[in-house]
Amino acid sequence: MASKKKRMTIHTWETTSVLDLGEMDIWDGADLALLRETMANLVEKKSCDNLGVNLQHVKYIPSGFFGMLYDWHEKGVAVNLYFPQPNVANMLWFRQFFQEDNEGCHRLTQHSKNRISLETIHWNGESPWKQKVNGNIEKSHITK
């Protein structure tokens, strides 16, 4: 089995250095670490200020991915995601912080596109994952 480093390719699309993990549809923590290491090398050692990630085959992304991209964005690096699958494009962070620039290219923006209002959330004060037993003792529905 080829190492993950050998599987990673870097392309130049217009002025953007685009990282590509190939035909992997689910990324794990090791993939995220490889992306982080490669991005750090490009930005810190090669003075790259325009990064992209090809998401053409990706169906699941670890939760730390967006935070990593936002960290680079805060340091002045332009961040683009290319050809996201529908389930990735429908993730909350993607919908909130990425703006489609042109067909297939989505740029990370500084501010949320849509404000999420807590006024639309109705909560009666009870935890829906718990139920009452014998009138006053609560038992969790979650089992181990």
Structure description:
The chain is α/β, with parallel strands linked by helices and 144 residues long. The protein has a single domain, classed as Transcription Regulator spoIIAA (2-Layer Sandwich). Helix content is 29%, strand content 26%. It has 5 helices and 8 strands; from the N terminus they run H-E-E-H-E-H-E-H-H-E-E-E-E. The chain has helices spanning 4-7, 29-45, 64-74, 86-89, 92-97; strands at residues 9-13, 16-20, 50-54, 78-82, 98-102, 105-108, 130-133, 137-140. A 6-stranded mixed sheet has the order 1-2-3-4-6-5. The relative contact order is 0.12.
Summarize the model shown:
The chain is of the alpha/beta class. The chain has helices at 4-7, 29-45, 64-74, 86-89, 92-97, and strands spanning 9-13, 16-20, 50-54, 78-82, 98-102, 105-108, 130-133, 137-140.
User: What portion of residues is helical?
Assistant: 25-40%
Number of domains: 1
C-alpha geometry: globular
Write down the oligomeric state: single chain
β-sheet strand percentage: 25-35%
Q: Can you summarize the main beta sheet?
A: 6 strands, mixed
Low-confidence sequence ranges = none
CATH fold name, please? Transcription Regulator spoIIAA
The Rg value, from CA coordinates, equals: 20 Å
| End-to-end separation | 35 Å
Count of runs of 4 or more consecutive helical residues: 5
Widest sheet: strand order? 1-2-3-4-6-5
Structural class, from secondary structure content? alpha/beta
List the helices and strands in order.
HEEHEHEHHEEEE
**How many strand segments?**
8
CATH hierarchy, class? Alpha Beta
Average pLDDT, all residues: 83
